[in-house]
C-alpha cells in the first residue's frame, strides 16, 4: 500500500496573530513544532522544537505576541493565519483580574470570582482556559468551576465540578482532570431539572467558596466559572442564580449584547459586567457533533485518552444495589402533602427497582452512604455503566474504572447512556 504524502509547511507569524487549523480526518495525525520565537495555545506556552500531536476533533489556534515560525505537518481540514484576534482584550481582562488578586493579597480577602457567559460556541471554555493558564503562569492557584453539564471538561456529561488548577493545561490533553470535586446532576442539559440544577449549583458554590479559606494562595487567586450556552428564559435564570451562589464580582459576557444588557439590569452594580468579542476562529459545533463529544467524554472516562485505561467488568446483584433517581414525576400542588410544593418533588430521592431499562445507563457512585444524608449535596466518587441487566439472575453487569467491589453501593441514576463497544 502506498503511503499518502502528508503536507508539511512552515508558517511565519507576525506579532499578535494566530495560526488556526482543524483536524477532521479520522486517521489523521497533525504535528506542530515551534521553530523560533514564542507561541502559545489557549494560554499554554509551546516548548521550542517539541513536536505536538493533534488528532481528529482538534480545533486549534496557536497565538504569538512577538512573532514566531511554526512547522505544521499532516492533513488538516483548514489551516490559515489570522491577524484578527481578541487576544489583547483577553489579556487585558487577565491584567484586571491580576490587579484584583494583588489587592486581595494585601487585604487578605477573597480574590476575583469571575463567571464567563455567552451563547453556544463563542469560546467560553477557551477563555476560561486562557485566564486560568495566565494565572498559573504567574504563580497563582485559582479554582476552576465548570457548570456546563452538556460539554463540561472536568468529568463526564451530566455533572458539574470544581478543580484546583496548579499548572497550565496540557497542549494535547487540555485542562488537568486530577482530583476534581464532582457533583451528579444526571441530565445533559439544565432544563432536565432546573430546580435540581440550582440546588446542586448552590451546594457546589458553598463548598468551593469554603475551600478557599483552607489555602491562602487559592483564596487570593479566586475562581473562574464556566457556564452553559443556554442563555434565554430558564437558562438565563440559572446564570443569575450561579452568579449569586458564587458571589461573583465580575462577569465576562462573550459576543451577545442582549445578554450583557440583561445582566447589567439584573446584577448588582458592584459586579463588573464586561462585554467581550468572540474570536472569529471559534468553531461552531453541530448538534450531532455535541452528541458525539458527549459520547467521547464518557468513553475517555473508562478507556482513557492518550494513555489507555483498562476498566473492569463485574456482576452486582440487585439486592446489593441501593439505586435512586433524583426527582419524582410532577404532581399537581393539590395532590402534594400539606406544606410541600411540587418543586420539592424535583429534588426528592426516589428508589429505582432495577429493570431492563437500566441497560447502557450511567450510574454515579455517591460518597453518601445513607439516604438520610444530603445526597444531592454530596460529591460523587466516580461512575459506572450498566452493560447488561439479567432479570433471571437478578443482577447487572457493570463497567467500572475500579475492580470489584463497588466502593459504595448508593448509586444515582443518570439519563446519560454509553454503548460499550469494547465489551
Ligand atoms: N481562536 C480560535 N481558533 C480556532 N479554534 C478555536 C479558537 N478558539 C476556540 N476554538 C475552538 O472552538 C471550539 C469551541 O470553543 P469553546 O469550547 O471554547 O466554546 P464554548 O462557547 O465554550 O462552547 P459551548 O457552548 O459548547 O460551551 C473548541 O473546539 C475550541 O478549541
TrEMBL record:
Gene that this sequence comes from: LOC119635320
GO cellular component: mRNA cleavage factor complex
Name recorded for this polypeptide: Protein CLP1 homolog
Highest taxon of source: Eukaryota
Family statement: Belongs to the Clp1 family. Clp1 subfamily.
Localisation: Nucleus
Location of the Clp1 N-terminal domain: 13-102
One Pfam family here: CLP1_N
Primary localisation category: nucleus
Residues binding ATP: 18, 59, 121-126
Role noted for this protein: Required for endonucleolytic cleavage during polyadenylation-dependent pre-mRNA 3'-end formation.
Keywords: ATP-binding, mRNA processing, Nucleotide-binding, Nucleus
Positions of the Clp1 P-loop domain: 118-304
GO process terms (BP): brain development; mRNA 3'-end processing; tRNA splicing, via endonucleolytic cleavage and ligation
SUPFAM superfamilies, per database record: P-loop containing nucleoside triphosphate hydrolases
Residues in Clp1 C-terminal domain copies: 309-420
Molecular function (Gene Ontology), one example: polynucleotide 5'-hydroxyl-kinase activity
